[in-house]
Write a structure and sequence with these properties.
The structure is a homodimer of 464-residue chains.
Chain A: H1 26-35, H2 39-47, H3 51-60, H4 65-73, H5 87-96, H6 99-107, H7 111-118, H8 123-132, H9 135-146, H10 152-155, E1 162-163, H11 169-178, E2 188-192, E3 198-203, H12 204-208, H13 216-219, E4 227-228, H14 233-242, E5 247-251, E6 257-262, H15 263-281, H16 294-320, H17 323-328, H18 330-359, H19 365-398, H20 401-431, H21 436-463
Parallel strand pairs in A: 1-2, 4-5
Antiparallel strand pairs in A: 2-3, 5-6
Helix pairs in contact in A: 6-8, 7-9, 14-15, 15-21, 16-21, 18-20, 18-21, 19-20, 20-21
Family (chains A, B): Belongs to the SLC41A transporter family.
Protein name (chains A, B): Magnesium transporter MgtE
Keywords (chains A, B): CBS domain, Cell membrane, Magnesium, Membrane, Metal-binding, Transmembrane, Transmembrane helix, Transport
Chain lengths: 464, 464
C-alpha cells in the first residue's frame, strides 16, 4: 500500500472521509511551521481548512503553539474556529492572546458566535473586550449577553432581514440583491410592523416563486413557532426537533423581533443536551471534556464516587445486621451480591428509559401511569424468570433446596423494587425540578442494594 | 386561575408552550368524534395540527381509533404524520389500513418520507404498495430502497433542482419562479454536467445577490462535503454536525447527483444515535420505545439481565474461593460489596466518557494514549483518596487497623483496574468493530466485581 502524504496541503475534494487532522505527520508539520515562524506555510495550510478542522488542529497542537499560531496568522485566522473548540482550550487561548488580537478577531464574527466566545470569559475580561468594540456591535452583543445563560437570546443571531408588509416581492428581491452587509446565510425574510412587532415570515423559496408585484403582506404566514428570547435553549431545541424547523424568529417580551435562531445552532444544543444526559447517567459531569486536565477530572468524578461510597456503606450496614446468619451460613455471603447486582441492573434499565423519556418530553402526566404499570409488570415477570433460574443454580451448587427458594423470593422482591425505584425516583425528581439524569442513579442503586441485601438476608434469617 | 379550553380548536399562536395534545380532555374529544363518525369536527381539529402533533394525537388514541381516524379524514389526513410516529404504532396503523388508503396517502409524500414509511414493512407488503404506485414514483422509491438500511440513500430526498453551468442566474431564478412541482423546500440549486455529474451548488441567498446575467458556472462552488449514497447515516450525521451543514448533495458511485440530504432529516439521525448510545449504556435496546408492549420490553431487557446474571455468578464464584476467610471473619462479607461497588461506579464513569468520545469521533488513535494515561492517573488518585477514607471508616467501625489497611489496598487496586477496564474495553471493542456502547458494560462490571472481590478477600487471606 503506497500512500503519498503531502504534509502541507491536506487532501481535499469530495472524499469527506479524508481527515487532514488525522493524517500522520500533519500536526507535527504545523507545529514545525509555528516554531520556524513560517507564516507563508501556515497561511497555505489554513486557507484549505474548514473552521471546524482549524479548531481540531488547535486542539491537537501543544498548548503554547495555539496562541502562537493565531498571532502568526493575523487576519487570516478565522475566529469562528474558536466556537468549535472545547471550552478549556478556548479559555486557555483567549487568556494568552493579546486583547487587541481578540478584539480584531471578534469584529468579523456573527453576533451569535461572538456571544458564544464572550459568555464564558470572566466579567472584567468581557467588559474590557466589549469596551474596545465599536458602539453598534457592542450594544448588540451586550443585549444578547443580558439574556440568561443557555437562553434563546444567547444563541440567536441578531442579523436578519425584516421588511414592512407593504413592500412587494420585487422590492424585497431587489433589496436582497443590492444591499451590502446582509447576514451571510438566511432562509427567510421577516415581515414586521413599524415597531418591529413580528407579522410572520416569507421563506426564500416562496419569495422566488411569487410574482414580483405581490405585497409581502399577502404572502406572509404567521410563524407557528416563535421563540421568546428568554426561553431555555433546551426547550427551544425540542421545538425545533419536534416540528422539523430550519429557523425560527426570536422576539422580546413585547413581541418585537430581536433575532433569529437557525438549526445549525440548535444541532449543537441537541448534541450538548444528549451528551449531558448520557454523561450524567454514567456519573460524569455534563461539561467534562476530553481535553480537560487530570486534576479537573479527578475532582469532578470524586463527588459522584463519594455519594456512591455513602450508598455502599448504607448497604454494608444492612448486611451487618445479619452477621449471625452470615456466620452460620457462608453461602449467604457468596450469593448476596447476585441479588443486589441483578436488581441494580434492572433498576438502571428502567431508570435509563424514564430519564430519557422525561428529557425528550415523551413521558408526560398523560402516559406516566401506563408506563409505571408496564415497568412493574416487566420487573415482576423478569423477577419470576430469574428467581427460577437462580433457584435451580443454587440448588445445583449448594444442594440446599430451601436456599434456592430464599434467593428466588428475594430476586422477585428486588426486581419489583428496582422497577418501582427506576421509574418513580426519576418522576419524583422531575416533579421536584431536579434533573433526573444527574440525580437518579445513586438513589436507584441504593434502593436496589438495600432491598436486595435486606430481602435475601432477612428471608434467610426467618427461614433458617 | 380561570382557563377556558376549547376542546375542538386547540390554542394556537406564538405560545409554542401551549400543547394541544396535553390539553385535558382533548384526546377524549377526538376519540368521541371518531366514535360518532363526526368527520366535520375531526377535519376542523386536524386542520389546526402540525403533522408532529397529529402523530402525537394518534399515539395518544386507543389503538383501534387510529386507523379509524385516518379513514374518516380521507384526503385531509397528511401521511407525513406517519413518519413522526413510534415504529410500533406506525406498523400497527399500516397493517390495519386498507392498502388503497395507504397508496393514496403515499403519493403525496416527499420521497424520503415515503421511503421511511415503506422500509419497515415486510417485503410482500412493500412490493404490493410499490406496484400500485405510478411508475416514475415507484422507480424513485425503489432506487432509494435498494441502498442499504441506515444509509444516506435511504434518507435522501430525490427531489432537487439541478441546472447546467451555462444557464444564467436570471434563467435559474425564472425557472424556479415558473416551474410547477419543484421540491417543497430547498436551499440551493445544484449545477451538473449533461450526465448529472455534480459540479457544485449555488445557495439560494447567493443566487439572489448575484447579477442576473452571470452564468451559474461562474458562481458555483464545489461542495466540500459530498455524501455518497452508500455512506452510513451516522457518519453523515457527524459530518453535518462537525461542519454545520444545512444540506449536502448525495451522489452515486459514478459521482452522479441522485439526491439531497437536509439537516432536518439529519437532526433525527443525531437524536436517534444519541438515544441509542444512551440506552445501550443503560442496558436497554436502542429501539425500545415508550409505546412498546409489555411483552416486547420484557423480552428485550431479559437478555441483558441474563448476561449480567452470568457476570454476577462469576463474581460469586470468586467469593466462594474464600469461604474459609469469610467464615473466620464476617466483617469481610460486610465490607466486600463496598470495594466492588466503588470499582463498578468508577469503571462506569470512565467507560461512559470513552464510549461517548468514540461515538463522536473525539477519541482517536492520535489522542488515545493521552486519555488512557489520564484515566489511569485519575483512578490511582481517587483510589488513594477512597482508600484513606475507607481505612478510617473501617477502623472506626470494627476497631481492626489491619482491616482498614486491607480494604484500602483493595480499593486502590480496584479503582486502577476500573480505569483500565473502563477505557481499554471500549477501545478494544471499537477496534474489533463491535459497538462499544452496547457491549462494554457487562465486561467492565465483571472486571470490577472480580478484581474487587479477589483483591479484597485475597489480600485478607494473605494478611490474616
Amino acid at each position: 500500500m503506497r500512500e503519498e502524504t503531502d504534509l502541507v496541503a491536506p487532501p481535499r475534494g469530495p472524499e469527506h472521509d479524508a481527515d487532514p487532522i488525522e493524517t500522520p505527520g500533519f500536526v507535527e508539520a504545523v507545529a514545525g511551521a509555528i516554531e520556524r515562524r513560517d507564516v507563508a506555510t501556515l497561511k497555505t495550510i489554513v486557507a484549505d481548512l474548514h473552521e471546524t478542522d482549524l479548531a481540531r488542529l488547535l486542539e491537537a497542537l501543544p498548548a503554547p503553539d495555539r496562541p502562537a499560531m493565531i498571532e502568526l496568522l493575523g487576519a487570516d485566522f478565522d475566529f469562528t474556529a474558536l466556537t468549535e473548540l472545547d471550552e478549556t482550550v478556548r479559555l486557555q487561548i483567549l487568556e494568552e492572546l493579546p486583547r487587541q488580537t481578540v478584539v480584531e478577531g471578534m469584529r468579523d464574527l456573527e453576533s451569535d458566535d461572538a456571544v458564544y466566545i464572550l459568555e464564558d470569559l470572566d466579567d472584567a475580561e468581557k467588559q474590557a473586550i466589549l469596551a474596545d468594540l465599536p458602539i453598534p456591535e457592542r450594544a448588540a452583543l451586550q443585549r444578547s449577553l443580558d439574556y440568561p445563560e443557555e437562553s434563546a437570546g444567547r444563541r440567536m443571531q441578531t442579523e436578519f432581514i425584516a421588511l414592512p408588509p407593504f413592500w412587494t416581492v420585487g422590492q424585497a428581491l431587489d433589496y436582497i440583491g443590492e444591499t451590502e452587509g446582509l447576514p451571510d446565510v438566511f432562509f427567510e425574510v421577516f415581515v414586521v410592523d413599524p415597531s418591529y412587532r413580528l407579522d410572520g415570515s416569507v421563506p426564500l423559496d416562496r419569495l422566488l416563486r411569487t410574482k414580483r408585484g405581490v405585497k409581502l403582506g399577502e404572502v406572509v404566514t404567521p410563524d407557528r413557532h416563535v421563540v421568546k428570547a428568554t426561553d431555555d435553549q433546551e426547550n427551544v431545541a425540542r421545538v425545533f426537533e419536534r416540528y422539523n424547523l430550519i429557523s425560527a424568529p426570536v422576539v422580546d417580551e413585547g413581541g418585537r423581533l430581536v433575532g433569529v435562531l437557525t438549526i445549525d445552532d440548535i444541532v449543537d444544543v441537541i448534541q450538548e443536551e444528549a451528551d449531558e444526559d448520557l454523561k450524567a447517567l454514567g456519573g460524569v459531569a455534563g461539561d467534562e471534556e476530553l481535553s480537560d486536565s487530570f486534576w479537573y477530572i479527578a475532582k469532578s468524578r470524586f463527588s459522584w464516587l463519594l455519594l456512591n461510597l455513602i450508598a455502599a456503606n448504607i448497604a454494608s450496614f444492612v448486611i451487618s445486621l445479619f452477621e449471625d446468619e452470615l456466620h452460620r451460613m457462608v453461602a449467604l455471603a457468596v450469593l448476596m451480591p447476585i441479588v443486589a447486582s441483578q436488581g441494580g441492573n434492572a433498576g438502571t434499565q428502567t431508570m435509563t428509559v424514564a430519564v430519557r423519556a422525561l428529557a425528550t418530553r415523551e413521558l408526560r402526566p398523560s402516559n406516566a401511569r401506563r408506563v409505571v404499570a408496564r415497568e412493574l409488570l416487566v420487573g415482576l415477570f423478569n423477577g419470576v424468570v430469574f428467581a427460577v433460574i437462580m433457584a435451580v443454580v443454587v440448588f445445583a451448587r449448594f444442594g440446599i433446596a430451601d436456599l434456592g427458594f430464599v434467593i428466588g423470593l428475594a430476586m422477585i422482591i428486588n426486581l419489583v423494587a428496582a422497577a418501582l425505584g427506576g421509574i418513580l425516583i426519576p418522576l419524583l425528581l422531575d416533579r421536584l425540578k431536579v434533573d433526573p439524569a444527574v440525580s437518579s442513579g445513586p438513589f436507584v442503586t441504593t434502593v436496589t442494594d438495600v432491598v436486595g441485601f435486606f430481602a435475601f438476608l432477612g428471608i434467610a434469617s426467618l427461614w433458617f
